[in-house]
Amino acid sequence: MSNSAIEVVQGDITKLRVDAIVNAANTSLLGGGGVDGAIHRAAGPQLLEECKTLNGCPTGQAKITQGYELPARHVIHTVGPVWHGGGQGEDELLAGCYRNSLRLAQEHGLESIAFPSISTGAYRFPLERACGIAVAEVKRFLDAQETVKKVFFVCFSAGDAEVYRKILAEEQ
Ligand code: AR6
């Protein structure tokens, strides 16, 4: 795996022209606030129409749709765990979000994928802990296959981007 396979970007994930952006959704897959709301607004109403056909998504799993009016071709919807203190399987569920999203991308022959910082907003997962899990899962996946070539971590705030860059550098 080359070092440039993973890139941290600060900004709005709805602007990225990649094969798939990942949505930090809830189990209904019918929209919400945060990055979920931003993705549905930018993709337009057809995204909700397709989501209605999916019958929701369990925590830690992922489902794929078209991107509609987004620059991204697809949206991979995953559901992060709500943070309850760490004793309720939160780490493994969050790892599942990254693993299952990447597997879906691979199954669909997608080369580039962008993740928001899943569960670290409304679901209150501690940022550094979530970031460590995200980086570990993405690295393991990139080392094991050749379809997905580029992974972006998209951070809304400069502070979050700094944490991601620090943890990525430590793991090199
Ligand atoms: N681009 C990139 N990152 C963003 C954007 C954006 N446009 N908007 C927000 N973020 P959250 P969660 C960041 O709360 O914790 C929803 O209502 C945000 O700053 O969106 O997994 C769903 O429907 C934070 O760093 O997701 C669920 O009910 C990160 O995205 C619930 O929130 C994740 O924050 C999911 O909560």
UniProtKB/TrEMBL annotation:
Sequence ranges assigned to domain Macro in this UniProt record: 1-172
Q: Which domain of life is it from?
A: Bacteria
Listed Pfam families: Macro (PF01661)
CDD domains recorded for this chain? Macro_OAADPr_deacetylase
Question: Which InterPro entries does the entry link to?
Answer: Macro_dom (IPR002589), Macro_dom-like (IPR043472)
Q: What is this protein called?
A: O-acetyl-ADP-ribose deacetylase
